[in-house]
Amino acid sequence: IVTVKTMLMPRRTLGGTGLKVSVLGFGASPLGGVFHPVDEESCTRAVHAAFHAGVNFFDTSPFYGATKSEMMLGKALAGLPRSEIIISTKVGRYGQDHFDFSAERVSASVEESLGRLQTNYIDLIQCHDIEFGDLDQVINETLPALIKLREKGVVRHIGITGLPFSAFHYVLDRCPLGTVDVILSYCHNCLNDDSLVMELPYFEEKHVGVINASPLAMGLLTKQGPPDWHPAPLALKEAAKAAALKAEECGVDIAKIALAEAIKTPGIATTLVGMATFEVVTANVTTTLQAFGLVPNDVQSQEETAALEVRDALKGVMGMTWPSGR
Ligand code: NAD
After folding, report:
1. Mean pLDDT over residues 208-237, rounded?
2. How far is the CA of 152 from the centre of ligand 1 (A)?
C-alpha cells in the first residue's frame, strides 16, 4: 500500500530549479510546537509517513519553535535517503521580533541549520519574511551572501518568503534574473484569499518557482481553529469559525475542502501544509490523492455541497488580510 501511494503522489517541477517536488509539501513549523505541544516520536512518525506516501519536500526554519522544528526534522530525516528528499530552510528570522539579514549572520545561520538538519547541503535556502527586513539590505547583502554559498554547493537554490506581494516585487524588480530561484507565499491561496493566482504571471516572467504555504490559513480553516497568536482580524476569525461549523453540519471537515481546492491550482508547484502527526499526514495525503482523482472519494458530492456553504460563509471576508512587516 505504501509503495502504491508513493508512486501516486504527483510531482511538479519547481520553477527553473529542476527540483521535482511533491504537490503536497510537508510544512514543519508545527514540529517546533507552534500550534500544539509535540514529542519526538510522533514527529518522526509523521515525517516518515509523509515520505513513504511520496511527500519529498520538507520546509522548516530556525524561527519555528526557536530551532526546535529544524532539530526535530533533522532527527526524523536522518533515517531516510537524503538524495530522495528536498529540504528547505530559511535565514534572517530568529524570533517574533528578531530579524537579522546581515551577510555574516545569514552565512553563520546556514552552518547552524546544516548541523541541526544533519546534512551537508540545503536544497533551498530562503530569506524568511523579508518585509520585516531592509529590502535593500536583502538585495545588496543577504542575496549575494547566499549566492556565494550556492556557488560552493552548500545551498542549491535561493528563495524569498513573505506576506505582502509588494516585498516580492521590490526585490525581484531589482535583481538580475536567476538571483532568486523561488518565492514562498502564504495565506494567499486558500478559501478566503486567492490573490496569489493573479500574481502568477508576474512570477513566471521573473523565472521564479512558486510555493504556496498555509492552505488552511494557518489554522483558520480547521475545526480546532487558529492558535492564539494568529494575526487575522476578528471578522476573518469569526467568518472562518462559522465556515468550519457549516462544513461540520454537512458532515465534512473544512480542512479537507480547503486543501483539496488549494492543491490543484495550476502554476503552483507545491502546497505546504503544517503537519506534525501521523493522523494529519494520512488525512492530507488522502485528500491530495482524491483531489487529483487518483483514489476514489465516496463522499465527493457531500463535500461539493459543503464547499458551497463554506464559500458562502466566507464571501464577506474574501481577500481580507493583515499588516505584516515594517
Ligand atoms: P497551515 O495552513 O498549513 O495550517 C497548519 C495547522 O493546520 C496546524 O495546526 C496543523 O496541525 C493543522 N492541520 C493540518 N492539516 C490538518 C487537517 N487535515 N485537519 C485539521 N488540522 C490540520 O499553516 P502553516 O503550518 O503555517 O503553513 C504550512 C507551512 O508553510 C509551515 O509549516 C511552513 O513550513 C510554511 N510557511 C512559511 C511561511 C514563511 O516562510 N513566511 C509562512 C507560513 C507558512
Report:
1. 97
2. 32
